[in-house]
């Protein structure tokens, strides 16, 4: 059964911290530059202190600089006058009957006032694997017609701090920090940039966040366990490999430009032929580092045997796997999910052609946390109100 937990009062903010700079979200180079410009720490101590700050922030997960006990109190006091480890506020936590958890996170302005902007982050447990789905923008510009987020206009990009904060908040709530789990399996093992927004339209912040997340001395999530999903921003695809080095997923969803122009309007700018060329040229592409193509199953739109056979032909020269995603409905959507028999028939064609083509089991649909269902709560309420008035 779905559980809704309001955490507004549980994670209240301390007064006076909002004009401080977030300590997390800065690279080691940024920390070095910042600390060197401030008369806080003797220069010869700075490399050691950076290592300590990194460990306390990303290994032990402290949310208070004063908890860093191997740093002298005078230095801690000076750091607290400038920096904070405060997380954004969780508004609600929803738990699905299948174990999926969705957090609605409220973002603030620099003065600590509510900006009215919210993002959603989803945790999907599956045996020994636990996947955290992160958002990169508030809203989205792409207007994919099958995606609920696409009905919410883009407000702004998230900062590196705001992207990373989703990981820290999830580890806080799941009690998943190293200090608490010395001999147990980590709960968050994988990260996917598949939440709200197009990650490649916020490249620098996403890049910086994922480099910190994959740092072996910190959050230490392997780059092979981090996947960035794009709708097809062709000029940026190569940089995913050369500058971040994580796995790539492509929201394909159709084998024809005519259909994909409607489903994924960015196709009008970067059509399928250009997209597949960028995929074929993706640095480091091989059978052990395949591209994942995502394909949502829409009844009588893109789910025919012809579509499946053409998909096989299109991807035959690209080391890849294909995630088949049953469409998850949302209020006001014009689409229906393909019949289960048709989905299986579609998958069988791909599997028989040698592609790994799992049918993704919908997770968190009862709390609107499944693929294509994310949208800020305030925006969802407004959408539902409009729909109910007709």
From the structure above, extract its key features:
single chain; 390 residues; alpha/beta; 2 domains; two-stranded parallel ribbon; 11 helices; elongated
Commentary on this structure:
Mean pLDDT is 88; it is low at 9-17 and 380-390. Strands 1-4-5-6-7-10-11-12-13-14 form a 10-stranded mixed sheet, with helices on one face. A two-stranded parallel ribbon has the order 2-3. α9 (305-314) links the parallel β13 and β14 (320-326). Helices cover 31% and strands 19% of the residues. With 390 residues, the protein is an alpha/beta fold. It folds into 2 domains: 21-84, Orthogonal Bundle (DNA polymerase, domain 1); 89-388, TIM Barrel. It is elongated, with a radius of gyration of 22 Å.
Arithmetic mean of pLDDT: 88
Low-confidence stretches: 9-17, 380-390
Please state the structural category: alpha/beta
Number of DSSP-assigned strands: 14
Radius of gyration, CA atoms, in whole angstroms: 22 Å
Question: What share of residues is helical?
Answer: 25-40%
CATH topology of the largest domain: TIM Barrel
Which sequence of SSEs, written as H and E, runs from N to C? EEHHHEEEEEEEHEHEHEHHEHEHH
Could you give the topology of this structure?
Layout: E1 3-6, E2 21-22, H1 28-37, H2 46-58, H3 73-80, E3 83-84, E4 89-95, E5 101-108, E6 114-126, E7 129-133, E8 137-138, E9 156-157, H4 160-174, E10 190-193, H5 203-213, E11 226-230, H6 234-244, E12 247-251, H7 257-263, H8 272-280, E13 291-297, H9 305-314, E14 320-326, H10 340-352, H11 377-388
Parallel strand pairs: 2-3, 7-10, 10-11, 11-12, 12-13, 13-14
Antiparallel strand pairs: 1-4, 4-5, 5-6, 6-7, 8-9
Helix pairs in contact: 1-2, 4-5, 5-6, 6-8, 9-10
């Amino acid at each position: 059964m779905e559980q809704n937990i309001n955490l507004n009062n549980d994670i209240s903010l301390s007064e006076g911290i909002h004009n401080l700079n977030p300590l997390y979200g800065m690279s080691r180079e940024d920390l070095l530059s910042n600390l060197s410009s401030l008369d806080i720490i003797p220069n010869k101590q700075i490399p050691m202190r950076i290592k300590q700050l990194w460990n306390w922030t990303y290994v032990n997960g402290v949310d208070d600089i004063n908890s860093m006990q191997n740093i002298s109190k005078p230095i801690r006091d000076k750091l607290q006058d400038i920096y904070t480890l405060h997380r954004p506020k969780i508004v609600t936590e929803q738990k699905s009957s299948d174990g999926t958890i969705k957090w609605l996170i409220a973002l603030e302005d620099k003065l600590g006032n509510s900006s009215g902007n919210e993002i959603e982050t989803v945790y999907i447990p599956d045996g020994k694997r636990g996947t955290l789905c992160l958002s990169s923008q508030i809203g989205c510009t792409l207007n994919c017609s099958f995606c609920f987020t696409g009905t919410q206009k883009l407000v702004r990009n998230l900062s590196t701090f705001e992207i990373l904060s989703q990981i820290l908040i999830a580890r806080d709530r799941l009690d998943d920090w190293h200090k608490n789990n010395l001999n147990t399996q980590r709960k968050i093992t994988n990260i996917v940039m598949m939440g709200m927004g197009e990650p490649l339209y916020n490249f620098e912040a996403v890049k910086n966040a994922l480099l910190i997340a994959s740092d072996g001395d910190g959050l230490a999530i392997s780059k092979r366990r981090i996947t960035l999903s794009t709708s097809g921003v062709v000029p940026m695809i190569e940089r995913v490999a050369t500058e971040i080095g994580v796995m790539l997923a492509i929201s394909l969803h159709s084998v024809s430009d005519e259909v994909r122009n409607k489903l994924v309007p960015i196709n009008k700018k970067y059509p399928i032929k250009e997209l597949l060329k960028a995929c074929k040229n993706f640095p480091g592409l091989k059978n052990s580092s395949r591209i994942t193509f995502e394909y949502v199953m829409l009844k009588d739109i893109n789910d025919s045997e012809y579509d499946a056979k053409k998909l096989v032909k299109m991807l035959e020269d690209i080391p890849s796997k294909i995630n088949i995603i049953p469409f998850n409905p949302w209020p006001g959507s014009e689409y229906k999910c393909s019949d289960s028999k048709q989905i299986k028939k579609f998958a069988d064609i791909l599997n028989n052609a040698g592609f790994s083509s799992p049918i993704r089991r919908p997770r968190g649909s009862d709390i609107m946390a499944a693929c294509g269902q994310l949208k800020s709560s305030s925006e969802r309420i407004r959408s539902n109100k409009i729909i109910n008035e007709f």
